[in-house]
Structure of Porphobilinogen deaminase:
Amino acid sequence: MQKIRIISRNSQLAMWQANHVKEKLISANPGLFVDIIGITTEGDRILDKSLEKIGGKGLFIKELEYQLLHENADIAVHSLKDLPAKLPEEFILAAILEREDPHDAFVSNNYQSIDELPDGAIVGTSSARRSAILRKYYPQLEIKLLRGNLQTRLAKLDNGDYDAIILAVAGLKRLGLAERIKTILPAKIFVPAIGQGVLAVEILASRKNELLSLLKKIEDIDTSRLVGAEREMGRFMNASCNVPIAGYARMENNQLHLSAIIADPDNVSFYTAEITGDPDSYLQIGQECARLLLADGAQEILGKYL
Ligand SMILES: NCc1[nH]cc(CCC(=O)O)c1CC(=O)O
């Protein structure tokens, strides 16, 4: 295989990510040609409704998968956080890249930190996870829907529609917009999304023999284990995409440490769990963390929002 065609959303962030994978692939596989094909997905076109209402995060990825199925492209580059816990069976993750900063960022033009916001201040987010965390720890703040790509969201903040917005640090850094970050929100409260800050390469399972060896060269093994634990937890919970869920694994003293949240979108209950174990047992750690949440009562949330 001499040439790889990458399919990507054509937002600036997605294109940066596709280019990053392209450069990594070329330096790991000298002589390889890599092309990038950008497309606008439905999720990018419809900006006036919450993602949950128009079909969830899946909207962004289905159209990329369609291009893989029809072999108009060889690989798809995604933010891992946008991929569902279970991929459709025709597809596999062929590579997980090294994690960028996984935290959420507080972005505002008038306030230096979230704790400075006055009662009733308007905070923009479209994430069920960020909303649940805000309702739990900052009930005095008002949450207002904020959609669109990174530039659109920042423009809406600058227009004065919001007092502050919450965005992933990783996306801002990738676009050279790190100076917009006022504070990095602590992972103890703002537990990051499963896979946040991580790029993943998806391929057709049937093309594994042809593509896998070339792609595995850009995999980061440590990140792969950490997000393996996070995604196993998510898979085990089998939560629908409108249920607020967080999962964040990191290494501490050679142990894998996983923290998680699952909450009720209607703001009735909020469950957290933390678990530490041998990094080689990352799948068991993910499952055990899910069992802790379920034993606590999270089962009831899952039943309600299937
Ligand atoms: N929800 C969209 C999305 N998907 C991935 C990122 C950021 C990059 C990443 O987490 O890898 C973002 C933007 C955001 O949440 O602010």
Observations:
- The chain has ten helices and 13 strands.
